């Protein structure tokens, strides 16, 4: 019998409120087809992981709600020398969207972003003045699933969950409302597929739980090059990656975020239905 490596996929805590099981089944099927034996472990209490050939945080959903617990897990994985994909330095770097400033410093087009240590009216006004628009989005630097993300209309008060807290302030990019948010997927550094996600009418969030919908998208060479330039800034080459981008008023694309921890990969839109994903993970062992 050929060698079948064991991989542990980290999954949400039992009280996590989003439905993750269908996406888990798709990823697990792709990994099984590649010759891997898949088991699930709850990320908040994964137990002994020493017997696994690889640990994948693919469904560590909700880590932004327990930041201390998440960083403690990363420290543990690193300290025990466990094989993790993506590598722990990549996971730690990608956990905090402060990396957007690093990308900008390297000349990568990103959504304009101002980080505020403790958001109040004065700091919001100062950040807004830099953008040339008063249609603003605020979000936590450590976030996921649009948790704590708000669109603030001119003159509207700061939401209670953001007041006095560290936040990223960004202009609402016009492209999100006109064309949607684009996601490009890479496995082992090679382009796989791309989609466009559109928000429900009256919303700016593209996630499914807010009524967002997605469809395949043909990513041109420019979009793929922008995504590759952003990924090149990571501490190590990611095995799996999703790059989210959005257009400005002129249609030029800007990086919104890199998803290198627990991204939805939309494998049902991949031409090979996830074969490249499975091969990339197997090849990382």
Short description:
The chain is of the alpha+beta class and 285 residues long. Helix content is 26%, strand content 23%. Strand 11 and strand 12 (253-259) form a beta hairpin.
Largest beta sheet: what is the strand line-up? 10-9-8-11-12
The third-level CATH topology of the largest domain is D-amino Acid Aminotransferase, Chain A, domain 1
Which architecture of the largest domain per CATH?
A: 2-Layer Sandwich
Helix content: 25-40%
Q: Structural class, judged by helices and strands?
A: alpha+beta
Q: Strand share of the residues?
A: 15-25%
- Number of discrete domains: 3
Largest sheet geometry: 5 strands, antiparallel
Q: Rg from C-alpha positions?
A: 19 Å
Q: What is the mean predicted local confidence, pLDDT?
A: 92
Compressed to H and E, one letter per element, the order equals EHEEHHHEHEEEHEEEHEEH
Tell me what the structure shows.
Helices cover 26% and strands 23% of the residues. It is of the alpha+beta class. It has three domains: 6-93, Class I glutamine amidotransferase (GATase) domain (Rossmann fold), CATH 3.40.50; 99-110 and 175-269, D-amino Acid Aminotransferase, Chain A, domain 1; 114-171. It has a five-stranded antiparallel β-sheet. Helix 1 (21-33) packs across helix 8. It is globular, with a radius of gyration of 19 Å.
């Amino acid at each position: 019998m050929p060698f079948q490596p064991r991989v542990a996929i980290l999954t949400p805590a039992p009280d996590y409120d989003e439905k993750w099981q269908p996406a888990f089944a798709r990823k697990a099927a792709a990994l099984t087809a590649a010759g891997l034996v898949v088991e699930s472990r709850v990320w908040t209490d994964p137990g002994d992981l020493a017997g696994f050939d690889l640990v994948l945080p693919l469904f560590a959903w909700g880590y932004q709600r327990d930041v201390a617990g998440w960083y403690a897990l990363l420290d543990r994985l690193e300290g025990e020398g466990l094989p993790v994909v993506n590598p722990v330095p990549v996971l730690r770097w990608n956990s905090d969207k402060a990396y957007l400033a690093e990308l900008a410093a390297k000349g990568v087009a990103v959504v304009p972003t101002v980080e505020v240590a403790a958001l109040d009216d004065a700091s919001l006004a100062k950040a807004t003045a830099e953008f040339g628009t008063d249609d603003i989005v605020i979000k936590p630097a450590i976030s996921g699933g649009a948790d704590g993300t708000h669109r603030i209309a001119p003159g509207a008060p700061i939401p209670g969950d953001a007041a006095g807290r560290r936040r990223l302030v960004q202009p609402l990019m016009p492209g999100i409302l006109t064309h949607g948010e684009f996601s490009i997927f890479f496995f082992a550094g090679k382009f796989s597929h791309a989609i466009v996600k559109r928000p429900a009418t009256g919303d700016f969030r593209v996630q499914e739980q807010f009524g967002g919908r997605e469809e395949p998208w043909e990513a041109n060479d420019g979009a793929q090059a922008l995504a590759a330039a952003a990924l090149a800034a990571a501490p190590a080459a990611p095995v799996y990656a999703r790059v989210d981008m959005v257009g400005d008023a002129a249609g030029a694309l800007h990086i919104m975020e890199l998803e290198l921890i627990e991204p939805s990969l939309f494998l049902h839109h991949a031409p090979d239905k996830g074969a490249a994903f499975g091969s990339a993970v197997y090849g990382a062992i």
